[in-house]
């Protein structure tokens, strides 16, 4: 028996890339899977039933149970249909993997309101919409798992991704609050920051210092390496794991810390702006994060 035997899992953005690998593994581990994917392009354009239908068909061909869903998670009604399809097709919903995403990468001064809104809608609002739709079922049955996909672009920062970074860090805040609010009902909520080559990461520019090397390293990290952690977090084996942030880099699993105070400085009577310049900032400076820090500075080594 697999670790998800008898469970029903919905995976968004499951037609291709990381989502597809998660859907396939969850099915292999015994889950019935709702494969959600509207089949849009990398920036959210168009639509095609092919990716979702193909993944669902591959699961059924391998002897598993799957239902394709073509809704957009950015639409509250569409997100609700993902959960409703799970309940109607398989009788319940046990976990939702919020993987769906698009990119509208633009350097900050060229980012439009439309670029900002489109990415926020799919990533942050999409996670809210699907999680909100699943919660009444989780609450009634006294159990449920939410697995949200964040990114080091949000946790650390990245160039040309203000919209994506804001959405991905927002997802962490959403996950943490869900974990705290819903723990009384047996609901768990966790985040994964994936390192993997996919259709989305293929848009990363290769120009600039160290960019080509970073892309080459990322190309060596397969999407299939992300799926085991996602499947585990959906299972009863993870019953005590909630409110955490993980990353996966090939065969390496990383547990991230949450923001914590690094250093504090108090002065009797308070501060003037000049005293902050003369005293506080020089004291803090040794512990400053570097101003140009991206994930390559935090993870400069090749994973095994």
Automatic annotation (TrEMBL):
Which Gene3D superfamilies does the UniProt entry name for this protein?
NAD(P)-binding Rossmann-like Domain
User: Compositionally biased, Gly residues: which spans?
Assistant: 39-49
Q: Do you know which InterPro entries this protein is assigned to? A: KR_dom, NAD(P)-bd_dom_sf, Peroxisomal_Beta-Oxidation, Sc_DH/Rdtase_CS, SDR_fam
Question: What Pfam families has UniProt attached to this entry?
Answer: adh_short
Q: Which residues form the Ketoreductase domain?
A: 7-203
Region (Disordered) spans which residues? 37-57
Q: Which domain of life is it from?
A: Bacteria
Family, similarity comment: Belongs to the short-chain dehydrogenases/reductases (SDR) family.
Protein name (Swiss-Prot/TrEMBL): 3-hydroxyacyl-CoA dehydrogenase
């Amino acid at each position: 028996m697999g670790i998800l035997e008898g469970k029903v899992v919905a995976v968004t953005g499951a037609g291709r890339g990381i989502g597809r690998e998660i859907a396939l593994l969850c099915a292999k581990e015994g889950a019935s899977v709702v494969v959600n994917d509207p089949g849009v392009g990398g920036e959210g354009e168009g639509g095609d039933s092919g990716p979702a239908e193909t993944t669902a068909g591959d699961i059924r061909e391998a002897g598993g149970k799957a239902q394709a869903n073509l809704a957009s998670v950015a639409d509250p009604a569409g997100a609700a249909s993902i959960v409703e399809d799970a309940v109607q097709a398989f009788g319940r919903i046990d976990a939702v993997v919020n993987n769906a995403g698009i990119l509208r990468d633009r350097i900050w001064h060229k980012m439009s309101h439309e670029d900002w809104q489109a990415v926020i809608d799919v990533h942050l609002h999409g996670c809210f919409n699907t999680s909100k739709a699943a919660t009444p079922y989780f609450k009634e049955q006294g159990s449920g798992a939410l697995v949200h996909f964040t990114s080091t672009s949000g946790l650390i920062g990245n160039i040309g991704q203000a919209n994506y970074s804001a959405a991905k860090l927002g997802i962490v805040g959403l996950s943490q609050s869900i974990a705290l609010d819903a723990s009384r009902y047996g609901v768990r909520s966790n985040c994964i920051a994936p390192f993997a080559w996919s259709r989305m990461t293929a848009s990363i520019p290769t120009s600039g210092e160290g960019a080509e090397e970073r892309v080459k390293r990322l190309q060596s990290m397969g999407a299939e390496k992300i799926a085991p952690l996602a499947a585990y977090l959906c299972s009863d084996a993870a019953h005590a794991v909630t409110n955490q942030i993980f990353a996966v880099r090939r065969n390496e699993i990383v547990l991230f810390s949450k923001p914590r105070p690094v250093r504090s400085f108090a002065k009797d009577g308070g501060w003037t702006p000049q005293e902050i310049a003369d005293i506080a900032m020089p004291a803090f400076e040794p512990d400053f994060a570097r101003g140009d820090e991206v994930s390559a500075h935090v993870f400069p080594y090749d994973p095994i």
